[in-house]
């Protein structure tokens, strides 16, 4: 097994560019801080790409690069290297695209306050958490704190952005090639921020102050975090199962990988976590090794093709 060889777009135009043709599989990558190879981020926590391993020699050109990684899906519009390498006139033909996106958007939605700067209430459809006066009955469990209208807004936003990305893929020489996305691990809301800022423009913590501001009881914080991350995982897997709307999309369910949880209330490295929302090297190792196997099986055409219920005679590639 060999580690994924990673280059940046700048490497392709350098004095000694890598020979992409020497690799069995050639991948294009873009994403958030889970993919960023900025030195400050690598010193602070891990890069998921660095832990990917393959039986066949595999290369990725990582557009998350050394600058700020994506804060939101719409940032793809301002990522000229990625768009050029995916759909430009001289774009290479890639065997697949690796994406780490959607997590920062979920965090941002959870951080949306109940009121705007001048005290006016923000509608439920524009936030993921409910004010105490809006909580449902205790019988609803932690779902009583969760804004389903806000989730519907987020889900439509994510679906539209992924469809746009797939359309970009199909405008270039990599049309129809697999797009690989991962789900996110479930963070423990806690007062553990990042060193030197993060992709959301703040040093964190992220979920911890939001849950406090909404008055969610601390005993329910972990379950609320799990609810949101599992909602995202189910959304992504449903998208991958819809091969008409999202052709060639493959989702790896990171929530199924056993990780060591961070201790509630801890302020630094704990379990498989470097801070509240970023994995450390052991956490990345666990997820990346499982994701590598999933990616290579798809590239080799060995993924399962189950028949979805309710759709007679139509196959769908596995999203797990």
Quantity of strands, as a count:
8
CATH class of one domain: Alpha Beta
- Name the structural class: alpha/beta
- Proportion of β residues? 5-15%
Radius of gyration: 20 Å
Biggest sheet details: 6 strands, parallel
What is the name of the CATH architecture of one domain?
Answer: 3-Layer(aba) Sandwich
Strand order of the largest sheet: 2-5-3-6-7-8
* Spatial shape: globular
Distance, first to last CA: 22 Å
Remind me, CATH topology of one domain? Answer: Rossmann fold
Query: Percent helix among the residues?
Result: 25-40%
Average pLDDT value? Answer: 88
Number of helices: 8
Residue windows where pLDDT falls under 50 for at least 5 positions:
305-320
Spell out the helices and strands N to C. EEHEHEEHEHHEHHEH
Defining key terms:
320 residues; alpha/beta; Rossmann fold; six-stranded parallel beta sheet; two-stranded antiparallel ribbon; 8 helices; 8 strands; globular; disordered C terminus; SGNH_hydro_sf; SGNH hydrolase-type esterase domain-containing protein
Characterization of this structure:
- The structure is a single chain.
- This protein has 320 residues and is an alpha/beta fold.
- The protein has a domain at 2-105 and 156-196 and 239-299: 3-Layer(aba) Sandwich (Rossmann fold), CATH 3.40.50.
- The chain is 30% helix and 10% strand.
- The protein is built from eight helices and eight strands.
- The strands form two sheets. It has a six-stranded parallel beta sheet, with helices on both faces.
- It is globular.
- The relative contact order is 0.15.
- Mean pLDDT is 88; it is low at 305-320.
- It comes from Roseateles saccharophilus (Pseudomonas saccharophila).
- This is SGNH hydrolase-type esterase domain-containing protein.
- InterPro entries: SGNH_hydro_sf (IPR036514).
